[in-house]
Amino acid sequence: MNIDKAIRKQKKSYKIFMLSMCFIFCVMPTALILARKFNIFYIIYLIVLEMLIFLAVVIRINNEFLKFSYDGYKLKLKMGIRRAKLSIICDKIVLVHVENYISKYRDNPNFRIIILSTSKFRNDRMILVHKEFLKRHSYVAHQYNKMKILHPENTFYYTIIKRGELNKYPLLDTIYKSCVYAHFTEETIERIKYYRENSENYIDNKKK
């Protein structure tokens, strides 16, 4: 699978979905007004449908919106419906791990990126590592315990990136290139290798 083509297809599908939902959202009340169907049943039915459309749009935006940039020092991300901001000091990243999971909104497998850092850097999304987090992510816990033994004086924070769908692949590649002091787990390396083997940028460079 060509990842770049798949990302473009994802963006195209996203735009078509948004346009179609907006069209339906506007057409239905207009049709009701033109038909002069002001029966309470039709009005309630319309309200329910409009709410479902709105909810579908919110979920789609929340799942797929991911933008990021790297300025040579920090990696800046915007995610989800709220455009939540996350700034990561790349030199402070100590661990990057990838986990597969099944989204409750989609049947196909997805993956999340788990990042451990020694700096919070005024980020609400960088959370102090706690027992519940370590219980939920056993492999990260294993790596965390090793780092804590080597550097007991360090305080570790984590963040989890789930949004973005296929856009997480180029993000992961950017993290790999910019976070030079981080340890990348085997699962993460496999994802990066898969991206580079199926990305137009790397395939074209190989041909040259």
UniProtKB/TrEMBL annotation:
Keywords: Membrane, Transmembrane, Transmembrane helix. The chain crosses the membrane at residues 16-34, 40-59. The keyword Transmembrane helix applies. This is Transmembrane protein. It comes from Clostridium ljungdahlii.
